Each structure stands twice: as structure tokens, then as C-alpha cells.
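Figure 2 data, in text form.
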Amino acid sequence: MKGLWKYISPFAPDQSGAASVFYGLQGIVVICDAGGCAGNICGFDEPRWFSGRKSAVFSAGLRDMDAIMGRDDRLVAKICQAVDHVQAAFIAIVGTPVPSVIGTDYQALKRMIAKKVSIPVITVDTTGMGLYDKGMEAAYKAVCSQFIEPLAVPKKNMVGVWGAIPLEFMHPMDGNKIVDILQKDAVDKVVLFDCLDDYRQAGAVTKNIVISPAGLEAAQYVYKIFGIPYECRYFGNDNLLTNDIVLQDKSVLIVHQQVAALDMAKKVRALGAKQVITASWFMAKKELLSFPHIYLKEEDDFCQLVQEGSFDVIIGDIYFKRAIPHFTGVYIDYPHFAVSGRE
């Protein structure tokens, strides 16, 4: 049934993806909501709150009449008051379902705030009804266009990594693992774009690595400006395929975000699988489609794919397994924090 999800928990929404990109960038992030969406972001979708590194995230605290009457002046006043108390490099306003329903004009809101403050104002028109990767992509676009400096001196062995936010990882703190792996490969500095200076020196990296399709447009933007090459690569999944797992002549389904699925598909094919198919509810970029890919929209799409696909092995977050109780093959857990929120 369309829209009915009985087994798989809701995925992280677009406002969470946008807020995750802004996290730690020295900005004031305003979630344009009544309080619930901000609570979800801070309590569930952003594990860095518990790592000791903080970020200024506020709820707009919209009341019923504020939303109905479109009292943008009250929101502007609240934001200006926050600017007086928080030293910030910019203001980012992130949309949620309420402003989406009432048709909030973010550009007008941006102009109203810009007249009263001396720092840049960024708006991301997320709706709360899209998935996290759409919010990520929109936030990257907004920050890149605002803060990437057109002149930069390349630095030897400095690598940028796009898409490196907890929602895209197998485990929320895998960003540290990426740094360790690349430094072992003789990289002097790894830029994860998790602070504003990283964006300012985006033109100084020698190469970019894209670990999420949501980061692809940002890498392409940098390539267009500076000619810096990029490649797609995922990290941390090397130990999932243990020696006791036989893939020779097997039919394998991989369910994850596109770059992670593609990286795993290459490993599976190298181990002798006869058929490899990737699938995802998240965005799929045409330039990354090197294996047959199935776009999933509903929970039933996944159930039907497994039922009709005759797969010997499925590789995906263990939460998906609840939706296919009759699958008798081998299921390999491939965690995805945006799906299950597991530590």
C-alpha cells in the first residue's frame, strides 16, 4: 500500500541533512519550526552533540498564529537577538513542513534579516518531506556559493572529502576513520568540510573524494572553478565480507546510499558474484550508475524486489531485514546511520 511502512523506520529527513552540513561551521542555524523538528535533529540525527563539539542551533518556535498570520517580523526579531548574543559567521535558515505548507518566502525572509545584520544569510528551502540527502545537497550548494574563495594556492597532498557527515557513515564517528586511512596513504591534510575554513581553502586541495551522491555536485562545482579532480570512494566497509562468506556465482543485492553501494558492488564482483544489483531509496546520480540500480520509493518496493529477485545474498542495514522475514539467503549487515541511527 502506498505510503504504508510497517517494518522500516522513517529515514532522516531533508532538514536533518541540511543542518548536519551546517554543524560546526560557526553559524547560527535556525530550524524554522515549532520545536519538534529541531528536537528531532538535535536528539536523534546529529550525534556530534554528544562528542563535545557544539553548534548554535535554534528553533524558530513558531506558534499557531505565527504560522497562520505569517508573522515573519517576529522571527526576524528573534534572529537579530540571537546575533547579539552569539558570535557567528553567518545565519542559516532551514525549512520544515510548517513553512512549506504556508508557503514561506525564504528570499523575502533573507532580505528582511540581511537589512538588520552584518553577516551573510543563507536559506535552505527544505520541506521535511524529502530525504536527508536532498537537504545535504542543497546546504552544500548554499555554503559553497557563499564561502568558497575564487583564489587559492594549491597545497601538496591535501585532500578534500565531500559528504562526510554522520548520516552517511556506517557509524557516526567514522569521519575520524577516514582521516586515519588517508593519512596512512601519505596524505598530509584531510579536509572534511566540517568547519568554515575548509570551504575557504577548497581551492587549495589537490584532489576531492566524494563519499555520498549528495556531495557530488559540490565536488563538481569545485572542479568547474579550480579544475580539481574528484573520485568516488567509500570508507570502512572492508571488514564486512569475511572469509566465511561465499560469493562465488551468487546473486547479490546491495542496499545503501549510491556511493557506498557502488564501492561494495565492486568488492562483491571481485569475489566472483555472478549478478550484482544495487538499490536505494536515496538519490542516484546517472554518472555513478556502473551497476544495475533499482530506485525504491515505498517499503513494498523493497519487499517485492526481494521476493521476485531470487537473491542469494543481501547486503544492507540490518533494519531492512525486518521487512523480508521470508528471505532465506545470507543477510550481511551494512549499517547506514541515516536509516537506523545506530552508534
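Caption note: The chain has a mean pLDDT of 91.
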